[in-house]
Amino acid sequence: MTALLLAGQAAATTATRVQNVPRAALQPPAMPPRGFHPGLFASFTEPLAGLANEEALAVAEESGGGGSSLLWQGIAAWFATPCSQLDNYANGFWKLEHPPAREIPTRFADMRHRCSASLLTMAQQASATAGNAEAALAATWAAAADPAGRQWSHFQPQRDAIAALASRADIEQHLCQGILRGQESVLGLERVFRNGILATDFALGSPDVAIYGLPISHPDVLAYRHRIADLLHASGMASAAAAAAADNVMEMERTLAQAPVQLDSYSLVQAEAALPEFAWQTVWQSLGLDPMTALYITMESCRKLDLLLEQRPLADWQAFLQYHQARRAQRYLQGGFQPQERLEQLDASRGGRLLLSAWYGQRMAPALTAPALAMFDAIRQVFIDDLALSALPDADRASLQAGLEAVQLVFDDAGHQVRWDGFIGSPSHLANMQALDALATRNDLAIIEGLADSSIAGPAHHLSLGTNVNDLRVRLSPALLHGLEQLGASREERWGTLGLMLGHEIAHVMGDAGELSAETKALMAREDTVIGQRIGDLWVDDIHLNATRVEQEAACDLRGISAARRAGQAEADAAGEPFDLPRFFLATAGLHAANPTRRQLRRQVAEDAHPPGPFRAGLARLVQGFDSAFGCTPRPTQPFDHLFPRRAAAAAADPNGG
User: Fold this and answer.
1) What is the pTM of this model?
2) Residue 71 — pLDDT band, cuts 50, 70, 90?
3) Beta-sheet pairing, 408-411 with 473-476
4) Which of 378, 390, 414, 652 could serve as a FRET partner for 474 with CA atoms 20 to 30 Å apart?
5) How many Cβ atoms sit within 10 Å of the Cβ of residue 84?
6) Side-by-side strand order, sheet with 408-411
7) Helices 500-511 and 350-388, interaxial angle, to 10°?
8) Phi/psi zone of residue 472: left (φ > 0), alpha (ψ -120 to 50 degrees), beta?
9) Degrees (nearest 5) of the Cα angle 243, 244, 248?
């Protein structure tokens, strides 16, 4: 999967937010159109020198733009030209509005914050009469706001069920059934793509596993023991009994923690052969799995669990189950009541995230997906047309064309296949959240079993885009579509943002194609070498881009920009309308606006396979059409234009000769 959205690295400093940026007295008449948002001009009333008098522009030790002060960033943004400082020209004033911070300010982080805010507004308006996922959300939202729905009395049915256990067989059945009820205690089910994992680390209550290797007198161990006793007491056990039971819970957790983590795949027959004493039939039958369906299992953990089932008395197991089910219930019973806290709690749980995705997809996807599909088809056709003119051997061209024709754009819609009309809301917030987790588990089981109506999809309400080169699917979330739509609605802005991103992903499919001839591999290697030389010339002050590290991602960006430019131009020509190339290129640069500190930028250059934002924003400068769009003096090297090596250029020194 191609990771598009990057997490910010920790920064050592912060800078004060800029509230006002004065205005230059005169704009040089020969300057091309400004790249920053025209709305900023309205507040410019003073010469730039006035910036020096703004106390809000206190200089951080390391601010963005190559470590310069915010004052200098403002001056550099104003006098930047697209021909030599494209990032400053397009994003300079955006950076002033988004000073460096511990989390690197980026355009995508900005979109995430906006998406979260709009999601909260919509969630508060969810109606119980709307049906399907929205009705389930409305019921869950209301119960989460009521303190009466967060009392420990709602845990009593689980405590009663634990007290009714009378044998080892009862305990084994309880462990497995708890997975399907959203009440995991020791065993849990997780899923990675279509692979199921029988997790046994649910019963390790301490987030720091090192605690299990410490002596019982260690302060950290004693503190954890007190937390166990407190939770047992809060969930209904007498104080003295809870203190005694805490020691047994700790000992049982220590035993489970001794098992080495080694996941291996087992069918039912294989699991029974590896550990005959364990209740594998109960596991497979409770989960409704076909005996031939394999699960990934840490067998040594199950061996330790089997030992505890054999040696520990029923009372120890009842205390152990009560603690771990109460520990998982506690996160729902003790969450915050404010709307933002309720939304975060929903999104942090498997079932709540599935519900939010299904609801958001129903509301937003229909209006957004059709234009994206049309854009995807147009960009794919550019790749196909360029492939037909390439110097690649006929067999390889046919193979790559088949791959291009097979690649699909699909939209993240996790939860859409769940029968939400069967969800019955409860006044108990705990009951609602556990019911949602149970639905998520059943959804995972359908995917693991490969049922016809199951599909692997991400949350519709998260910003995401990626390509699975194995199934030739480009996955795009409706939330990202909505966020990009807010960046600009013009044809040029749509093609410069979403078009670029779709072209980038299609380029990945081509770059990861299967068996190709040695001749084609050599031609593509020469092409990549030239791309590496081009991007190897990119600097931000004294920071140099590592061309070897980012060559693949940068090449996909260049192909994405080129394909989007041609597809957008073709759409405009078909409509008999002009295509504003400067606006298109500014949109491609603005998409990757970022304001890292020098330290953050150096770290990204050293560690990331993607060009950091300030470098990535400048890649458009290397593409055919940029120089003529802005009146730049052409560079000595030819601009990037062809998606594949051309026949006429196959023998030339530069296989991408423009």
Assistant:
1) 0.84
2) confident
3) parallel
4) 390
5) 12
6) 408-411, 473-476, 465-468
7) 80
8) left
9) 115
